[in-house]
Specification:
407 residues, alpha+beta, 16 strands, 11 helices, five-stranded antiparallel sheet, homodimer, nine-stranded mixed sheet
Chain lengths: 407, 407
């Protein structure tokens, strides 16, 4: 396993050099370095005896079909695009590890067909909309997406053609009906596993997410001449509410609530703030819990605004339901973690992933690896070789169980 | 008095038309419309029998010397510059009312010399530094101020020459040694008198002011993947502190404390804020009370930062002591208010005024007039004619008392 772990990491570091920008890792959907990444992965897949093609939305797909395999197949995959100035492991590690799982299945001579997908787009950077690759695989790629433009004015449709693909064939990218399970391996991108000294975890859900903004509108007044009791200070109201967000999220298990953005008018040191606008990002794996918290927080804001004689305006931006992972598949993964001699751990994912999209089409689960320092979306993003090795031991146990179950 | 009040208001409205910008009231230090204002006021002063000149820093000065007057003189004045897009009364009303006081002194045949000063600069807009007019009158105009540049690169020295004045003669602008009292009449620019249904108040002090900024530096983390207990949220820390500012200022009599400015990094809805920088503007008439509150608030910030494992950096910008008004002169004004049949009221000024600068040179006090809606530094700024009339009845009583005292 040590050799496989070292290779999976080294592959990520090699792929990291295939970038739009020298010295930084930036690889957006269907940009020229994607050709290099696909050529490299295609060669790796072919060496493993897989049959390879690129679908019409740019996903690289390799299929391993051993002798004696049933029609049913396991699908593994993650994305190979990145944010600008990214780390080397977000997405890519899920592909290089999937190829090591192929090697493990071959070692074990498992009669299990396995497809590996390197998703072409997950981060939403180039066209402002994420999951372009996995939407096509889930079979619900909205044709309107083809008209989206990147900052240079190039449409998704042109980008696909320029890459040598045919947008008319996107429908054919949909997951094969024989796919009975999808597993995405991904770094955690958070600090939980590190805080608990764990290498890996099964993901039981991708959290639901509410995004909204609140605007408190009071009165901008002179900071010297307006007594405290005669103020309608919009920032003081917003600050009181920020404390409520922290309080409610802090006392609700597994909830995260964030006010990440604030703007104040006129934003001058000697003027009582007249308007304060704050964002809310609230996430939880259980939708009713999330929605109740949003309403509780809105009620708190309403009460704060009323007491201060300040106007309140709410704008909802996103209400994305949680996506539970397949229970049976996640239990398999949990068993595999224990069989690999690791402490059992399952957790929700606080970030979105391709698995969230594929889950609508096939039973899906995810395996998380510890993110040292919780650092991701940053050049300092890394993984520990021992954790990668642990994930491979888990993969071996999982493949054994799944092959047995299918067989 | 009704005629005088109406005229004082109409003069302000006329002078408001003398602006750098058509349709808006903007009149910065020594800009062309200042010539028009000075020509208008000079004619008014000369009609009143005053001798008029413009000193080397652009203050228009008229002296009324009646027969039988002693050498000692009362000085009245306020500023005729404005902020951009100003109201018509901030500053200017103090000059038009001073001219009505001259008329009252003449009606009463008081043997009292009175100088009226229309200060050339108070707002600090053109050169970023306020009180250029009153500094010269107080006799401490720092020659380094001559090198300040406006946004067009024009220095104070050039602006003075361009206006037809001689910067070498600024020393001669200092207040005459015979000046035994300075009174500035000004709108309150706040809501206190309106809240108490009062027309006027004597000002007993100009508050001291602390300005500083605090930077809370935590860690920017993923809003979805970072559990609440593992966060070091700089905005949550700042919000907690903003509540402390409101609390301490709210429970300390006559204190005002304002967080008017905030900036957050990276200021994205889905990222836990890594850095939050907030301003503090804290004012009180009693310096030890103000300084103790600043230190209490800094201790609160230190405790908040420590508990959250967040770094804290403090930058002090201003520590301006309070300026008490002359007790005897303010008592005279208080007596005059009562003699005019008005409820007694004295209060601190939360804003700076020329009186603050002149107080270093001569016994000084101020008379405040109600600001409807507390509105100032805005085109909607106004005054009520009945309040202007009340202030003139107070002026009459004050002049009688002062003439009697000097005589």
């Amino acid at each position: 396993m040590k050799h496989r772990a070292a290779r999976a990491i080294a592959e990520c570091e090699l792929i990291a050099t295939m970038s739009e920008e020298p010295g930084r890792i930036t690889r957006r959907f269907l940009t020229p370095p994607m050709h290099n990444v696909q050529a490299h992965l295609r060669a790796r897949m072919e060496t493993l005896g897989m049959t390879v093609h690129v679908d019409a939305v740019g996903n690289l797909r390799g299929l391993w079909t051993p002798a004696g395999a049933s029609g049913r197949r396991l699908v593994l995959g993650s994305h190979i695009d990145t944010i600008p100035d990214a780390g080397a492991f977000d997405g890519v590690l899920g592909v290089t590890l999937a190829l090591e799982w192929i090697g493990l299945a071959q070692e074990l001579a498992l009669p299990l067909a396995i497809e590996v997908i390197a998703f072409s787009e997950e981060e939403g950077v180039r066209f402002g909309v994420p999951f372009l690759g996995s939407r096509a695989i889930a079979g619900h790629f909205d044709p309107a997406l083809l008209t989206l433009k990147d900052p240079e004015g190039v449409t998704v449709e042109s980008a696909i053609r320029d890459f040598g693909l045919d947008p008319a064939r996107i429908g054919e990218a949909a997951l094969h009906p024989d796919a009975i399970a999808f597993v995405e391996i991904h770094i955690e991108q958070g600090p939980v596993l590190e805080a608990e000294s764990l290498s890996v975890a099964a993901v039981n859900a991708i959290v639901g997410q509410s995004r909204l903004s609140l605007q408190f509108s009071g009165h901008a007044n002179h900071a010297g001449t307006t007594p405290m009791r005669l103020r309608h200070d919009a920032l003081a109201a917003a600050a009181e509410w920020i404390a409520e967000v922290e309080d409610i999220a802090g006392r609700t298990a597994s909830m995260v609530g964030t006010v990440g953005k604030i703007s104040v008018e006129p934003n001058a040191g000697n003027v009582v703030p007249g308007v304060a606008t704050v964002s809310l990002d609230l996430r939880h794996a259980h939708d009713p819990t999330r929605l109740a918290a949003v309403e509780e927080l809105f009620a708190k804001a309403t009460a704060i605004a009323k007491r201060r004689a300040i106007a309140l305006q709410r704008t909802d931006h996103l209400d994305q339901p949680a996506v539970p992972m397949d229970e049976r598949l996640t239990a398999f993964l949990g068993d595999a973690i224990e069989a690999a001699g690791l402490p059992p751990k399952s957790m929700p994912s606080g970030a979105g992933h391709d698995a969230m999209v594929i889950a609508a089409r096939a039973p899906t689960t995810m395996l998380f690896l510890r993110s040292p320092g919780g650092i991701s979306h940053h050049p300092a993003e890394t993984v520990r070789e021992e954790d990668v090795g642990a994930s491979l031991r888990v993969g071996r146990e999982f493949l054994l169980r799944l092959a047995n179950d299918i067989g």
